[in-house]
Design goal:
2 copies of one chain form a homodimer. By secondary structure, the first copy, chain A, is an alpha+beta fold. Helices cover about 40% and strands about 15% of the residues of chain A. In chain A, helix 2 packs across helix 4, helix 5 runs antiparallel to helix 7 and helix 18 runs antiparallel to helix 19. Chains A, B: Keywords: FAD, Flavoprotein, Mitochondrion, Oxidoreductase, Transit peptide.
Amino acid sequence: MVFFCSWIHRFRSSSKPIYTNLINSFSRKLPTNQAVGSENIQKPFAKSFLPLALALILDCLLLISKSKSFGGKGSTDYVVKGSHKEVPQELIQELKAICKDNMTMDYDERYFHGKPQNSLHKATNIPDVIVFPRSEEEVSKIVTSCNKHKVPIVPYGGATSIEGHTLSPNGGVCIDMSLMTRVKSLNVKDMDVVVEPGIGWMELNEYLEPYGLFFPLDPGPGATIGGMCATRCSGSLAVRYGTMRENVINLKVVLANGEVVKTGSRARKSAAGYDLTRLMIGSEGTLGVITEVTLRLQKIPQYSVVAMCNFPTIKDAAEVAIATMHSGIQVSRVELLDEVQVRALNLANGKNLPEVPTLMFEFIGTEAYSREQTLIVQKIALEHNGTDFVFAEDPEAKKELWKIRKEALWACFAMQPNFEAMITDVCVPLSRLAELISRSKQELDSSSLVCTVIAHAGDGNFHTVILFDPNQEKQRKEAERLNHFMVHTALDMEGTCTGEHGVGTGKMKYLEKELGMEALRTMKRIKTALDPNGIMNPGKLIPPHVCL
Amino acid sequence: MVFFCSWIHRFRSSSKPIYTNLINSFSRKLPTNQAVGSENIQKPFAKSFLPLALALILDCLLLISKSKSFGGKGSTDYVVKGSHKEVPQELIQELKAICKDNMTMDYDERYFHGKPQNSLHKATNIPDVIVFPRSEEEVSKIVTSCNKHKVPIVPYGGATSIEGHTLSPNGGVCIDMSLMTRVKSLNVKDMDVVVEPGIGWMELNEYLEPYGLFFPLDPGPGATIGGMCATRCSGSLAVRYGTMRENVINLKVVLANGEVVKTGSRARKSAAGYDLTRLMIGSEGTLGVITEVTLRLQKIPQYSVVAMCNFPTIKDAAEVAIATMHSGIQVSRVELLDEVQVRALNLANGKNLPEVPTLMFEFIGTEAYSREQTLIVQKIALEHNGTDFVFAEDPEAKKELWKIRKEALWACFAMQPNFEAMITDVCVPLSRLAELISRSKQELDSSSLVCTVIAHAGDGNFHTVILFDPNQEKQRKEAERLNHFMVHTALDMEGTCTGEHGVGTGKMKYLEKELGMEALRTMKRIKTALDPNGIMNPGKLIPPHVCL
């Protein structure tokens, strides 16, 4: 495991944000039949990086082959155990008939799909079969067959999940959506787009740019739209545009019985029955496989101001973020970084930013309005010991600054290239953010581990990256202790254990404290009603001790 | 029935927007024990109108007593039939033990609760018992008892629903939430508030005003927060702030088995498990009784520009609304009225507005930004044959204009005081709105009935008020034909049969065309899992022909 991780780290430090896509594009069987009649987004993208991909492929395969043991070292908290039943030959034959060449039982491929790429979560099993469906119809047939044989299914998108969503603790069939990347229709006048779930948000935005539109969710590079729906993700722009919950118009989903459900019309708002769209968003593949997504788009703003401001303490920085939100200013980004995170960014990017608590702002709209908002927030910052704003002036400088911020996780590995990262994700009511960050920071600073703080401060959502040596059990335990501390502190403040990363296997243990057993029983009742055989992504989201 | 309706019409024309609250405050038993330890919002409100209420009470009772026949005239489409089983004496005794004096079996009270106030929907039965719980605990006990005896429950808020949500086609127990109106906590720094479901949105905003905050949903006057959650309502400000879906942080809900479920934390965003909050919003009391709501609040804007603009055709007006949205302008309201609706407003309010298709705009933010947005939209309007903008200058004039708009329904009755109204509620992708309105308008204009058009044009949501003589079967049929025409036209445009009013009994027949049988079966599976005895608001939302 260590080898694979360290390879990823090396890769991260060379061509960080694209590494997930690269892995996707070279480490699996190539599709024999691309869907025709519509634009395939991933193809040109993968193509442009082909030389690099080919150069790295041998390295990848070599390192994967060295790391085939499962379970191994590590806290049991992060190793998901599951019983495993052999997949019946009859099912294999049915899947072959459906998927033709687009399936594999190759060990390396199964191994690769058995471990999320950016996560310390592991499982004691890996999938038995990987299928690469090309259409909703194929997904429906695959799921119908698996349901008939009561074999588990794990939907698989960009695999950038941090909480173990794509683990296959019971083996079974992994449905890799990477061949379903079409833009099915772009409705410029309605500012919406209908896509297949395997398309990445970055590729989608490349496609949309010429139309003056964009999709305003920006999770980790490599994330796909389907996975983003499944985990109810958000990102730095959620403070302005909301999360996936607010930005999906409707879905098509294949349920456990193989039925294809359309969750809503294409109208922007509707009161027509239960909100199946929102039920599916954040259900982490435990209720169905998403096969089509209609997304709400935004106009690319005509103007933006991007600025940074430094503070003597992280509490000052957090207070300014809170005061900015209270002012009624519709900031489009307000990101907080502590001095350790800035140091990491400097190290990884050859920058020389002041290594002190920092806020990064973006104001958008007309030029006059962006500037007016900036002046108001500058005044707020001054009242809280902030320095003068430093502006990113030209479009390239602005883009670079957000790129650096987006790759903060990889930057952390520049400080400790052979370490793993525990990434936390709590979110609290806004008024509690400064206190939560202060208390957490105190705990992090007094720890022996290197920890950085990054917050989507306008939403009350903050992350820490806790670096630890995976070979040092004591360090792993300390990382876990810090995570527990922050989660419980957030829950005591009426917050949540996960603002945007999802439950997966990692956060199940906190749900009862957060929501109560009644809510969990309700979730289990819904799960059982829609997936009576329990085949859909088993072992995720609903804690195993919940009984009906 | 006619007498009661005509009384409402008379009442409407005298003191329109408050009539629902007045009815609520005098036509039911007064609570014996108000909840203590927190502010009761409805009390001072009701008190201030007490003299008027007392003056009207005799009139009300007299007219109600004249109209006790059910079913009667009218299309069978709008008369909901249901079997009725006598409520067991044991349940009555249990309810008495829970609710003490806060329950009634008085016929007038049951009759009153058996007919939604603004709706042409009727049922062949009325509730057998009305209970007025004072706490979540009481609601839980009531529901537990009803579930034990398998007796239907109908939750009852402001009763302003248009689609028959509060009908009791199978009799049973009506749970009137009008004694649960407390503000449980206001968190100014988090910009959220925790309330009981019986509080009205208008009363809540009165309470919030001194804090510089408001709740940005504005459905019909008299609507309560609980009912607004249940129907996933919106209103004129949804174009800026979203619907109830986007503005509720969490709920507490009593399920059919009596369990109290907390659907989420108080964090603004969370990825912690299935989105039970959104599942309950829009479930119309068929999954549970809402007992507590945490709402997201907004700052009262520091400045606003309110303007009207006239157009030669309704298509021009619709095109301007669409172009405004495409421009990226964050308009806070863009309401469209046809010439008939303007005539109604003039008649009811003694105004002299030009009786032509009209757009009403609101732009908010800083003064400079509001004015900048106004200039951009003025330019768009000019390009589409719009007149110069006419501005409401002072705060009182602005308030009056929105009040007139809000009371548009009552204004329609000024044209035909003894008629009933069929109110339609379709919503389509924005690019189709102009075409839909044009086609509908053509159909409406060539009808013998008086019809007005009001649209939340920025959302693609539009209503028509079709006035008809309830004694003329031919007129009723014609109103139904027009409604069908608009719904089917909207569905053919990938729209929805209900943008904000909900399904109730009125829109069930369109859901299969809109969503497909697979989605309806999924809803039924969820319903059955959470309410196996089918006691929660039976006969609503899920069409009876949906089988598992």
